[in-house]
Amino acid sequence: MPETALRSDIPTRAETRRRIRRAAYRLLAVLMLGATVAGVWMTNTWLTERFTETTRMRTELRLALYSGNIISELQRTSVVPLLLARDPELSKSLNSGDFSTTSGLLIAARDEVGVASIRLLDLQGRVVAATDRNVLSTTFKDAPFFVDAQRSRDTIFTAVKGVTGASDFVYSRAVLSEGKLIGVIVVGADLARYERAWAGISDAVAVLDSSGQIVLATEPRWRGVTMEEALAVRSAPSAIERALQATADWANEPPDAWVSGQAVMRTEARLPFRGWRMVAFTPYTSVRDRVNAVIALEIMGFAVLMALGFYFVSRRAKVQSAVYRRESAELRALNARLKREIAERERVQKDLSLAEQTLEQSSKLAVLGEMSAAVSHELNQPLAAMKTYLAGARLLLQRERVAEALSSFQRIDDLIERMGAITRQLKSYARKGGDAVEPVDLRAALSSALAMMEPQLKARTVRILRNLPRGQVMVLADRIRLEQVIINLLRNALDATKAVRSPEIEISLTADEMAVLTVADNGPGISDLEKLFEPFWTTKKPGEGTGLGLAISSSIVSDFGGRLTAQNAETGGAVFELRLPRLTAGMNAPESGRRAAE
């Protein structure tokens, strides 16, 4: 009996331990959840107070800056009426009644001191001169600034409410001549620009005078009313809107006011001017966003801890499933080997297909580079020039100017001969070197290239600076191919200066042991110098270039025994440098030509 009781008690004890373990896990989960809620609540309370105080301090600093700007503007404007009231030209105009040049003087004074407006009134309150000519002949005899200025010999400040509700802030002063009142000068302070500047921030800002009326505000409907009336003008939110707003503002302190449906804190500062005050309403959005960001990180940390707890709990189940994993390990390994073999075969097939496509494309590009690309690139300039000369010849024939038209046809004939020479030279682009070299004047080749580029240069306003020696600079080269290289450099310089406001191309030629031709522009420069002379590399849009010009030019210069380089200038723009061996009088031209060809 005791043995049987012992056997029946063993599973009961195991079940009890399992129940205790499950209860411990549940208790641990509840404790962690409670700790999360308590931590989030305490973090929310502490961070809300801290970030709110920081936001309020920043708003106070901002108000101090704004008030300083307003006081500075008012003090600067208050001096202007005193200076203008003593201006002899204004007194002379009022005494003589001649105001033909007075408005111009006031406009010049306004531009110099930077005030909003200046008006000159006679004794009847009529505007006889003003920076705004639309108010000329307007009468202000009952205006406070005119009446008060007549009664006092000091500068009078007046805030006049305009038609739109905005206030105009003016300083007025009597103009005296030999102690006798002859007129009133009125100067307006430009405080509206600060109002426009405040509109660019998220805070709502208002300036109140001593009577509590709002004279400046970022909200146009606030002008001319008290702050209580301004805050009361808002649509009543519905029950759903109030519920959503309460949910959104759960991290905030009770708001000081509501502006445009947003809960805001109120910050006030006093201006040392006639009892004025400045009030700013800062939304709690920044506070709420910063608090929510920290709380999100805190919740994420508690979530990671809970995940780690569940991970350790699940380890027991993983141990139990380890037996089943060992039994299927060999089968999974075999399956993995089969998958690797299949993937390897598919990869080999893809590589083979890609290699075939690459080889085919390379062949197509080689044929394209040898046959079509060179022709389309090198014949572009003669064709463009021919089109221009044909248009000019047609216009000359219509005007019966036959002699000048024949001159255009002669130029077209020269271009046709040049195109024939270019097509005969195309085979030199496909092979290294050549033997068709002769002494060529680099100055003459440059002049010929500029003549070929004449239509493009006339189509745009481009400043060409040339720094050339007076004498000949002889090199050993083929004249046609050398001109094509210079044309390519000039075309690149023209294309680089398309977006420049004042395009400029500087051409320099120096002659020492080497003849150096430099073409510099003031464009944006070269983004990738390493790929510049590679075939088919270009920064132009599709259809504007093939990317072969500089590659072909570099090959031609190498055939002549020279070198073509490029770099970015320190002041901006690209600089191309063409260096060729100079042919001096003591050199044997044919032997030098053979060496360059080799």
TrEMBL record:
GO terms for molecular function: ATP binding; phosphorelay sensor kinase activity. The keyword Disulfide bond does not apply. Residues 374-584 form the Histidine kinase domain. Its EC number is 2.7.13.3. GO terms for cellular component: plasma membrane. It is an enzyme of class 2 (transferase). It is a multi-pass membrane protein. Keywords: ATP-binding, Cell inner membrane, Cell membrane, Coiled coil, Kinase, Membrane, Nucleotide-binding, Phosphoprotein, Transferase, Transmembrane, Transmembrane helix, Two-component regulatory system. Residues 321-365 form a coiled coil. It catalyses: ATP + protein L-histidine = ADP + protein N-phospho-L-histidine. It is found in: Cell inner membrane. This is C4-dicarboxylate transport sensor protein DctB. It comes from Rhodobacter maris.
